[in-house]
């Protein structure tokens, strides 16, 4: 398995965004499986004809999104788990902390969530 990415220099999207989007898409589709070792920043930059800072910026964004993880000198890998689920769990935790600070009890916090879900999904 290899990482096949083409950067379109004429595209409206910046090269780092093209790279970030392509790696994220390949990981979510399972074409880059969990644990797949990505090339080094310098190696990928050279391969794609990009500046190392461009690749580093894409890797930082992917790491922030939970798509990849860096393991020190061992390299950068496709992360385990669903980054969307992790982000939702983090948002839920933040919500709970906020409602507790506001003095809402569990029932009131749950009712607020249910109302927001009904409004968003039309149930």
Per-chain topology:
Elements: H1 15-28, E1 37-38, H2 41-48, H3 52-64, E2 68-70, E3 76-78, H4 83-101, H5 106-121
Helix pairs in contact: 1-3, 2-3
CATH class group of the largest domain: Mainly Alpha
Strand order of the largest sheet: 1-3-2
Q: How many helices in DSSP terms?
A: 5
Ends: how far apart?
Answer: 43 Å
Radius of gyration: 19 Å
Main sheet characteristics: 3 strands, antiparallel
What is the string of SSEs from the N terminus onward?
Answer: HEHHEEHH
| Residue share in helix | 55-70%
Mean pLDDT over the full residue set: 90
What is the CATH homology-level superfamily of the largest domain? Winged helix-like DNA-binding domain superfamily/Winged helix DNA-binding domain
Describe this structure in words.
The chain has 123 residues and is mainly alpha-helical. The chain folds into two domains: 64 residues, Winged helix-like DNA-binding domain superfamily/Winged helix DNA-binding domain (Arc Repressor Mutant, subunit A, Orthogonal Bundle), CATH 1.10.10; 39 residues, no CATH class. Strands 1-3-2 form a three-stranded antiparallel β-sheet. A hairpin with a 5-residue loop joins β2 and β3.
Short summary:
The protein is mainly alpha-helical and 123 residues long. Helix content is 57%, strand content 7%.
